[in-house]
TrEMBL record:
Pfam families in the cross-refs: Methyltransf_11
Protein name in UniProt: Methyltransferase type 11 domain-containing protein
SUPFAM superfamilies attached to this UniProt entry: S-adenosyl-L-methionine-dependent methyltransferases
Domain annotation Methyltransferase type: ranges: 56-97
Gene3D superfamilies: Vaccinia Virus protein VP39 (3.40.50.150)
Gene Ontology MF terms in the entry: S-adenosylmethionine-dependent methyltransferase activity
Length: 285
């Protein structure tokens, strides 16, 4: 969901909108990131993530999923290309500001690709997570495939690789809002535009990466916001509306996004959108 590693691998279809990356990262960290907590919890419980786990988080963003793994005793490495989100991850996980705790490999934050996280003296990872959901943006499956090509060699035989995706549009209230992004970005017609979710997206990515499927699950992840303004900021922090901003302008996107959110606004002003996300557990052969 974040403009993370997956997004960085997508070809640009038009001019990149001018945004404040620090403000965008803060909105992601403070508003949007928590929406996927049920997904993180379900995966960690299923895989029994704990002290014996060495976890590599792809597109780790501002580090909430990593923090939850650390709280279960896992050793974690987070990889991302967004400097602003990684700054927030370091605040959470490495308050001394370093990319690793002195004298230990328990927690590492790495800017770059999964290959940049490789260490000759480190044991293989037992769990690899790619929690940014695919399935609503053209080209996102291909971008995830590129990440896995770098990440899978760092994992041990039998290691779990977790992929996440949006559920069926009819079970994701946010899908109707994301169609606004598709409509506004229509002139670009390129990678990054919204697309309908395909039920086999995750399996295809796993197969291309040479992974063996080992079960899947669905998790309810409702998107809840204090008001429409918070919802607009949270959703825009995902980067899913960037092509629309590039094709039109920020004011128009803000206006039409706010209008699309009104059917989901409650009497008290809060915004509530039920969603279902899907995850696939695959194994390194």
């Amino acid at each position: 969901m974040t403009p993370t590693l997956v997004r960085q691998h997508l070809p640009r279809a038009g001019a990149v909108p001018r945004v404040d990356p620090r403000a965008r990262a803060r909105d992601w960290s403070e508003i949007q990131e928590r929406m996927l907590v049920p997904l993180y919890e379900a995966v960690y419980a299923r895989l029994d993530v704990g002290p014996a786990t060495r976890l590599l988080g792809l597109g780790c963003g501002s580090g909430l999923a990593l923090l939850m793994a650390v709280s279960r005793g896992a050793a974690v490495t987070g990889v991302d290309t967004s400097a602003e989100r990684l700054d927030l991850a370091r605040e959470r996980l490495l308050p001394d500001g370093r990319d690793a705790r002195p004298g230990t490999a328990d927690t590492r934050i790495v800017r770059g690709s999964p290959a940049d996280a490789a260490r000759a003296d480190a044991p293989a990872y037992t769990v690899v997570t790619a929690f940014e959901p695919i399935g609503c943006r053209a080209g996102d499956a291909e971008g995830l495939g590129e990440l896995l090509a770098d990440a899978v060699p760092l994992a041990g035989r039998g290691a779990a690789v977790v992929l996440a995706g949006w559920g069926p549009p009819e079970r994701c209230a946010t899908a109707s809002v994301l169609r606004v992004a598709a409509k506004l970005a229509e002139p670009l017609r390129g990678a990054g535009a919204w697309r309908p979710t395909d039920r086999d997206d995750l399996e295809r990515v796993a197969a291309r990466a040479g992974l063996r499927p080992d079960g899947s699950g669905r998790v309810a992840c409702p998107f809840g916001y204090a008001d429409v303004d918070s919802a607009v900021r949270g959703l825009e922090s995902t980067g899913l509306f960037d092509p629309a901003v590039a094709a039109t302008d920020q004011v128009q996107v803000d206006k039409e996004l706010a209008e699309a959110l009104h059917p989901h606004q409650r009497r008290d002003g809060t915004v509530w959108m039920p969603n279902v996300f899907r995850y696939l557990v695959a194994r390194v052969p």
